[in-house]
UniProtKB/TrEMBL annotation:
Highest taxon of the lineage: Bacteria
Protein's name according to its UniProt entry: Phosphate-selective porin OprO and OprP
Keyword Signal annotated: yes
Organism: Riemerella columbipharyngis
One Pfam family cited in the UniProt record for this chain: Porin_O_P
Length: 452
């Protein structure tokens, strides 16, 4: 393994040296067809990320090594007020549909823009999740946005922005490509992101905003001999390191019915400094067919004689989770300056050759919702309410999805518009009853990004 890591590092450095030798000025997107008379333009592009990571933990093994984190081809077509975009990922040797949508501009000029968008794309929730990976300042996104954010889905949105306000909202189905719930109907949700920009000059941008999401959960699994639908909501995130299996931060919420999510965000941008952060809260309410389940248990070994007594032995309560992050960045030279993109209410990437940046981040993710007085018995991987180690009827409402504090420092160097090299160090402190011997994680990562 060490030999492979060393070999990958040598090859990466060799590629960097070659890119220095071939350094050229940034160019516009590659047009494969353009008809100015009829206002038609077609572009073709792609990107390729290679990662190198060395990870350690106290007890449970985490993988180190190299991988192709991202390999995409993308194309777009512009025709008058219409814009089509397709993005296809072949990273990791597997095909993934990323983005496929059509946007129609109702208005689009220097003062403001109004548009409708339909297709498969990222929901407008979270500043971080709506930032392209090529424009990110860190190799990994914060665990918080992976666990409590939401990614691509099939939907319809309306977007409006001007010099001081940004709004993007719409209705979506549950992810049509990732929905693997074996039973029930497809879920749906409404999502929106709203930003107020009181100051936006070349020297200073101030930005405050928030995101909202409501989901009606309709999918799950069949129990009670196939007669009862048990809805559920699975939430998870990898730690901010090269091993992305999500085992340390994950929870399966039974009987999930409605999901409410609120996010708050803030941003300060100067020519060579930025600070930004988000805080997200999530609440899941539950609904269960108690009478149906009560009737099904009658006549069994542990029959309960009344519905009220059965409900007392099988309590049901809402589940909550929360988290946030704060990021800082500073450009060490004047080769580039941070720029604010009002179309997406985000800081753009640093694509000017020679830009050298240092960044730091603290993030906090809490998927633990442990009820007061409950005791966890590792031997059975189970919580017991009131500290009473009795298998029946003691059913706990506690959820142990894990709690993580992470700190990251990193550097980014822009070789040219088409190549950026990054390196990060991350320390994570974990609190998860299912992994009592795992407290400390360390990760050193490097990434080479190519894009055209």
């Amino acid at each position: 393994m060490k030999k492979n890591i060393i070999l990958a590092a040598v090859l990466t450095l060799g590629a960097v040296g070659h890119m220095f030798a071939q350094d050229k000025a940034a160019i516009k997107p590659y047009h494969i067809y353009e008809d100015k008379d009829n206002d038609i333009s077609i572009t073709l592009g792609g990107r390729f990320f290679t990662d190198l990571s060395y990870n350690t933990s106290d007890f449970t093994p985490v993988k180190s090594g190299t991988n192709i984190a991202d390999a995409r081809l993308r194309t777009s077509l512009t025709f008058k007020n219409w814009y089509f975009y397709g993005d296809f990922d072949f990273g990791g040797g597997k095909f993934h549909q990323r983005n496929l949508f059509v946007r129609y501009y109702l208005k689009n000029d220097e003062e403001s823009s109004k548009s409708l968008k339909f297709g498969y794309y990222a929901e407008p929730f979270s500043m971080n999740l709506n930032t392209s990976e090529y424009a990110m300042k860190f190799i990994n996104r914060p665990s918080t946005v992976f666990a409590l954010g939401n990614f691509r889905a099939l939907g319809l949105t309306y977007k409006y922005y001007n010099n001081h306000f940004f709004s993007d909202q719409g209705i979506f189905t549950e992810d049509v490509l990732e929905n693997k719930k074996p039973a029930g109907n497809q879920s749906w949700n409404v999502t929106g992101r709203y930003v107020y920009i009181p100051v936006n000059t070349p020297d200073l941008t101030l930005h405050i905003g928030g995101s909202l999401r409501y989901k009606q959960n309709n999918g799950g699994e069949l129990i009670n001999e196939g007669k009862t639908l048990k809805t559920n909501q699975y939430i998870s995130s990898s730690l901010e390191m090269g091993d992305h299996n999500g085992q340390f931060l994950s929870a399966n919420i039974p009987w999930a019915n409605k999901l409410y999510k609120v996010g708050f965000e803030g941003l300060v941008r100067m020519p060579r400094f930025f600070a930004r952060g988000e805080y997200i809260m999530q609440k899941i309410t539950k609904k269960r067919p108690d009478q149906e389940l009560f009737d099904a248990q009658l006549g069994g070994l542990w029959s309960w004689t009344t519905l009220k007594s059965w409900q007392k032995a099988n309590p049901l309560d809402d589940s909550k989770a929360n988290g946030g992050y704060l990021e800082l960045g500073y450009l060490l030279n004047d080769k580039s300056h941070y720029k604010y993109n009002r179309e997406f209410a985000l800081i753009g990437g640093n694509y000017d050759p020679g830009a050298f940046e240092v960044v730091a981040r603290y993030s906090y993710t809490n998927l633990n919702d442990i009820k007061e007085g409950d005791v966890f018995l590792k031997g059975k991987n189970k919580f017991y309410p009131g500290g009473k180690i009795i298998d029946y009827p003691n059913e706990s409402m506690s959820i142990a999805g894990g709690k993580a504090h992470s700190a990251t420092v990193g550097i980014n160097y822009t070789i040219n518009r088409h190549a950026i090299i990054s390196a990060d160090y991350t320390y994570t402190r974990l609190d998860n009853p299912y992994f009592p011997n795992d407290k400390n994680f360390n990760s050193i990562q490097a990434r080479m990004m190519f894009s055209f």
